[in-house]
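Weekly puzzle thread! Below is a chain. First person to post its structure in token form gets bragging rights.
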Amino acid sequence: MKLVVADDHPLFRSALLHILKKAKPGCDINEVGTLSELMALLKHDDDVDLLLLDLHIPEAFGFTGLIQVLENYEQIPVLVVSGNDNPDVIHKAMRLGASGFMIKSASNDDIVNAVDAVLAGDNWLPVGLPAAGPEADEELPAERIAALTPQQLRVLTMVSEGLYNKQIADELNVTDATVRAHVTEIFRKLGVTNRTQAVILFNRFQVENPQEKV
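Winning reply:
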């Protein structure tokens, strides 16, 4: 059995690996700390039985990390791991294709039960999760976000922060023309015609990171 743990917090990752190795002796477990490391690992070997994915892993902008994995490796079941217990976030992750959602404060027994459930082909949700709200019927064009390259996602993130093309070019150390080309391609892939529309669509896939709260 092969598992992958994608989380940038060494202490949590170490604790999770300890729990998994104790519950699944002999299991082959790989660990990564960024989205680019994860995608490189899966490109090299996508024969994975389960991926435990931190929703806020570096380089994953909101749900975009989850979307990229699911669009490129739909055969791999994904158990989302997050400190965010917002019911809307949990339901949206499941609608996007996650096989389960585990809160980081879950007990060791719940962690093992969640892993077992997803490995068995079932879904896993936190106990007592409220029903989905009105957003449940909202269309989520995940395939548009999945079509963006990592660099285009970075540019779109900066656009959403209100940066102009020259500022983005300075940040990425590229020319204004390169940024304009990225923006044009972003509009085409997202099916929008201006920056405002692009930002509105992008924001639908954003998730508040509890660790960024002051």
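Puzzle host: Confirmed. Bonus trivia for everyone else. The radius of gyration is 18 Å.
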